[in-house]
Sequence to fold (226 residues):
Amino acid sequence: MNENMHGAALVDRVIERVREHGWPTTDAPDVTEPVPLAPEVIDRLRLPGGRPLPPSLRRWLAFDSSWFSSVGWYEDPHAPVFGDRGLGATAEWMYGGGGPMVDSFTEFERLLPAVCLPLVGGSDSRRLLYLGSPDSTGEYPVLVTDIDDLPYVAVMYPGLDVYLADLAEVVDLDFDTYTSLAEDPEYGPRMREHAENTALGADGLELQDLYELELEDGDGDGDGDE
Fold:
């Protein structure tokens, strides 16, 4: 594993890019006046459920807390309090309302019961940080939801670190499909950890796949992380 391609080291490259040039995409809110958090404030922060912040988030918050406030994680960038929405409520927030397709993401909460935090990117698809089980680097997976055909959920990035790096275009990633990073030489191992931890598998699940998985499981609640 190339440590410069993961965690805080990778986020350092993102920060350098954003500080000098801004985001290369209009999807992302600008960071014109960063709001850095002091180390002691970051040390006190905990994710919902009392879990520690991933290395990527700690490093980014030392640079700026306003961006995630703009994205919808919390109201006050000077004193963050993370939201506690599940997948269904997060999807409704990201898509700007409900409807049969969007409402169906609540069904996935039987497999994915942890808190979700919204991210930017996509139209029929959206991205979110899923605070289930961290991988071996301490990072939580970024999931993709899609409503183009059937409601669909998959692991798209192995962590906030890689998501931010892709958004800032400091890494060159090949996305033939949402789950292409599962075969990436650098990020594949972490992707496979999350595919197993979430029970979404390497290819993700459509709503009908979720029902079939629950029937195979035999107890109606899947085997996802708690």
Summary: The chain has a mean pLDDT of 93. The longest helix spans residues 7-21.
